[in-house]
From TrEMBL, chains A, B, C:
PANTHER family: SERINE ACETYLTRANSFERASE (PTHR42811). One of its GO terms (biological process) is amino acid biosynthetic process. One of its GO terms (molecular function) is acyltransferase activity. This is Serine acetyltransferase. It comes from the Bacteria. CDD domains: LbH_SAT. The keyword Transmembrane helix does not apply. Pathway: Amino-acid biosynthesis; L-cysteine biosynthesis; L-cysteine from L-serine: step 1/2. Keywords: Acyltransferase, Amino-acid biosynthesis, Transferase.
Amino acid sequence: MDRSDKQRIEGIVQRILDDFGDDRAINKTDLCNEPDKTAIIDVIDKLMKILYPGYYSDKLYKIYSLKNNMSVIIEDVIFHLKKQIMIVLRYCKKFPELTDAELEDKAMDITYEFMDKIPQIRDYLETDIQAAFDGDPAAGSKDEVILSYPGLYAISVYRMAHELCLLDVPMIPRIMTEHAHSVTGIDIHPGATIGKYFFIDHGTGIVIGETTIIGEHVKIYQGVTLGGLSTQGGQKLKGAKRHPTIGDNVTIYSGASILGGETIIEDNVVVGGNTFITNSVEKDTRVTAKKQELQYKNN
Amino acid sequence: MDRSDKQRIEGIVQRILDDFGDDRAINKTDLCNEPDKTAIIDVIDKLMKILYPGYYSDKLYKIYSLKNNMSVIIEDVIFHLKKQIMIVLRYCKKFPELTDAELEDKAMDITYEFMDKIPQIRDYLETDIQAAFDGDPAAGSKDEVILSYPGLYAISVYRMAHELCLLDVPMIPRIMTEHAHSVTGIDIHPGATIGKYFFIDHGTGIVIGETTIIGEHVKIYQGVTLGGLSTQGGQKLKGAKRHPTIGDNVTIYSGASILGGETIIEDNVVVGGNTFITNSVEKDTRVTAKKQELQYKNN
Amino acid sequence: MDRSDKQRIEGIVQRILDDFGDDRAINKTDLCNEPDKTAIIDVIDKLMKILYPGYYSDKLYKIYSLKNNMSVIIEDVIFHLKKQIMIVLRYCKKFPELTDAELEDKAMDITYEFMDKIPQIRDYLETDIQAAFDGDPAAGSKDEVILSYPGLYAISVYRMAHELCLLDVPMIPRIMTEHAHSVTGIDIHPGATIGKYFFIDHGTGIVIGETTIIGEHVKIYQGVTLGGLSTQGGQKLKGAKRHPTIGDNVTIYSGASILGGETIIEDNVVVGGNTFITNSVEKDTRVTAKKQELQYKNN
């Protein structure tokens, strides 16, 4: 590298560093106090090994050492998750009155409470696996569902993130479900409430909004939106019920949009593909779009 | 970590381990005998290097050593693929009468048969590259297609997985295409049959079901579903022709849904965007949705 | 491995190597002269650390060493980006009259020009962050937007790739945006022109074509296509304006398709969900699909 290159690079570095100076959102450089996305994704990967001990394993150990290995993984998750929770609690000023030591205790308690929810999360996931196998003629076995269905992955991450939401942890739940969104194309907000036996088939393009409530035995296909009617209100709408309520035994075929916080889809409803629904639907109903008029021309 | 922390962690570990006790699907812990998703994804990555020697290479070797390098990669693929095939054959009890040694021979034979299909797979992919370049005005060159088009990646993985399907290998083909689905948003079931010169543009949200049959020179855009009419039958529908048949020279624009096992789209048909098609379409036809009535309001 | 295995593997290797012989596109083996996708993705990751110094950091260093660390990352990006630009310039024969040394100088100049655009790119991204926070009631904070919104990631990569497009760099911009497409399901062609305060919510399935022009304060939801009317012309359409023009303060709800190079959506327009638009829309208009007729049957 000759001298002029050195000067040009120095100039570039200086101009970029200068650009970090003011207090725009993009400029945060308080590095040690930010949640760490990579650490959170690593926690997700390890939690998957706890949820599905035989599937997401490292295959390096034998069955007799399962207990030792699980202990190591669980301790590791507790350590890292607690650290990230501590960071976001401080960062979001959830408990401004607490000292750092007290905040760490708080983070520890939340982490323990979360870890104690794992058997219950696994109870729910067992029903989701059953629903996928029962609902999809292409499913060769439940193992195939666990090993290859993106819907089950998205639901697994959602069910964990949702528990952290209920424990009032900021930021981390959304980072978790957005990681699953990236892997699967399925975007479930961690704030949504979803019952047992939930089956997502194919799944790409699904959006389930923050205040959605979904009952049991619900089946959803690719491209379905359970969303808000309008977001013109922006931040003023925060906290309002903006997304629909879905009853039990509801099937929603691909491309359907169900919008609005007052829209209720009652039990045993079948929602046809590509429908656009902004009003409630009574129970035991099959709602479909009027047969689309097609035009045929000789090419 | 103080004593009460130690006790709480031990309690959590014990409760999670207790939860692994019963015989639910989620509890499989027979670690050594499960197919290994990570190993299968590694095989996919290496197979891509064999399919596209100049593109997915490690860039570490010179052209004169291509032969040696390819030999190493091919042997590696054979070793790991055989191992995974052996595991799934035993796991799915495909040949309960065979000893482990005989099962290993069987897995070896299947692996050899698959590897001998590679030149034919590459023949097909060369036509897919041609179709992408010819069909997309935004394609700068065939190299750009190979290096950056997600559709070609999804088709490449599908074409390999489909050959494993034809060789009656369980689970692995689906794990392969679901990996491609995660990378691209394009969900092609490995059981589908797809002819030469197949072009997927953009691709996110595409679903191509298990019993779909697609001819040659077919072009499909993002959000297209080639799917089933209903899955209310669940596992009872296994094996039935549930997905459509598409002829030669057919173009299907974005967001179209073509559903049902008896639906046949004949040669030279153009299917317009956002159509919902559950009946067959005769050859040389352009079928479009009737012009959507739009409403304009002053804001 | 016994002798017959050895022979079979040798046969397979030979048949695959023989298959590399002819001059099909798939057979390129000029390894050293191909752009390297892995290197380009690594450059993207490092550029994200420069764009968002506090978020995509390695968390290993303290604030006082920010300058040193940034210098290292910036030099690293310059070195690798220059190398890849040099490769694609030679590969695509952009300057056949230049010697390799002159081509390297050319690549260096382009790299410097690109790096000097970073403060301007960050100016734009700051407005995009603001737009996401203001536009989404579910956004907890701007940090959450930066750490978890896929739309912002896709826009960040697009804004960098677009600058490389303007500097006439072939192949690399598309490889960059296709990487973002894989991560987010959002497909923005690097040739598109997009103004400040751009907000993508959810995003999966969005396609924004090469010749699209988008104004300021535009908001786009999942599944929106800004595309061409037909690609029957294939390569003959290269360079033509095939994709729409969108004014300022436009909101486009999920699933809308706006198609055609002469289609202009003027300022302050709201485009309703699932609309299919192939004609221009005048300013201050809300355009929606006529209420879809739904059919209700007792199940």
